[in-house]
Q: What sequence folds into this?
């Protein structure tokens, strides 16, 4: 066993622990009781260690390596994509900083909006490769969206990303501007068109329904995009965020206590009533389940330690947009409060809630 530990660069104690928790169990033992690792065991150990070195927690690693839909090749592709995502995110931030430095060298003032635009121009190409690890369809949220689609048979999914929440029992066409996102759509997914929400390349009333899930806040002109959805479809269903309700900044402990910059990001975002009026929609609250399967920003409201995991944050565009300094500060403070018990004391009322209203709203027109 010592030879195995040395060959993969971990301690024997780590291998013992993985065996005890069922993460990597050797297939056989010698007559003296020593663990014997087969080639298959070593392959699993390699996958486990690769995910661990990318910052995944043990429970998440177990879910990943035990996923029945993936094999060794799929794991290697996922690991490659995660590593490329980190590289691309760093490249995007360096490019944005270089542009700002160049502007300042010319004596040009760079406004906060321009800084956000610099980073946002490649935002989804930079963060997109992190999505497969944590962004999955949550069946309870999906049920709300699919119910709102009614009897629509043809559906346009605008800002479709990798295809979460696309109903499998309908004729779906997807629209996604990010090449990284389009490349990660699974085999058998709906056909995907490279286009922006504000300029949909379809005739009037081409679809029974148009849907958009957690994407409107990334559009250059949300109202124009919503009106385009209304133009090409008879019914419109949009999952978005209410940033105008009194006290909305305090609904979620993460933005209230650790990331106040979140409010600044939505400063120019249209108010929910304005978006609803643009398409003649009603707004319905969508509570977030405590064990939400989709790793959206609010998903871990009862599982705060998840926000300490880098790969979890990388699949949330907000962390890239607030910047590295704010992210480090928020993570450090949250980690301290979890260690001292301050977070638990401050948020004890959450412990027994099955779902929480954190501002997600479904617009149905």
A:
């Amino acid at each position: 066993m010592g030879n195995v530990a040395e060959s993969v660069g971990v301690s024997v104690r780590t291998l013992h622990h993985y065996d005890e928790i069922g993460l990597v169990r050797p297939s056989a033992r010698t007559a003296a009781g020593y663990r014997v690792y087969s080639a298959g065991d070593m392959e699993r150990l390699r996958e486990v260690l690769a995910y661990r070195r990318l910052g995944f927690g043990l429970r998440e690693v177990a879910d990943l390596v035990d996923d029945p839909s993936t094999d060794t090749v799929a794991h290697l592709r996922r690991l490659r994509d995660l590593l490329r995502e980190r590289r691309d995110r760093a490249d995007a931030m360096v490019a944005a900083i270089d542009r700002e430095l160049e502007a300042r060298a010319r004596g040009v003032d760079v406004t906060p909006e321009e800084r956000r635009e610099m980073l946002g121009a490649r935002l989804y190409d930079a963060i997109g490769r992190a999505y497969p690890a944590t962004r999955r369809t949550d069946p309870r949220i999906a049920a709300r969206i699919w119910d709102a689609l009614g009897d629509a048979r043809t559906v346009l999914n605008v800002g479709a990303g990798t295809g979460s929440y696309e109903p499998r029992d309908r004729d779906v066409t997807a629209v996604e501007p990010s090449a990284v996102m389009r490349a990660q759509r699974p085999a058998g997914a709906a056909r995907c068109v490279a286009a922006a929400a504000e300029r949909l390349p379809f005739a009037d009333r081409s679809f029974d329904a148009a849907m958009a899930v957690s994407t409107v806040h990334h559009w250059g002109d949300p109202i124009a995009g919503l009106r385009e959805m209304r133009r090409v479809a008879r019914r419109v269903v949009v999952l978005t965020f209410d940033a105008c309700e009194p006290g909305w900044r305090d609904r979620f402990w993460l933005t209230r206590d650790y990331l106040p910059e979140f409010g600044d990001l939505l400063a120019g975002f249209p108010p929910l009533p304005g978006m609803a009026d643009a398409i003649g929609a009603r707004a319905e609250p969508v509570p977030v389940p405590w064990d939400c399967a989709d790793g959206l920003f609010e998903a871990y409201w009862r599982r705060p330690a998840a926000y300490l995991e880098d790969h979890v944050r990388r699949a949330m565009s907000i962390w890239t947009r607030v910047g590295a300094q704010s992210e480090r500060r928020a993570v450090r403070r949250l980690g301290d409060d979890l260690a001292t018990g301050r977070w638990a004391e401050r948020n004890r009322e959450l412990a027994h809630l099955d779902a929480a209203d954190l501002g997600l709203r479904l617009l149905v027109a």
About this structure: Confidence is low (pLDDT under 50) at residues 116-123. The radius of gyration is 23 Å.
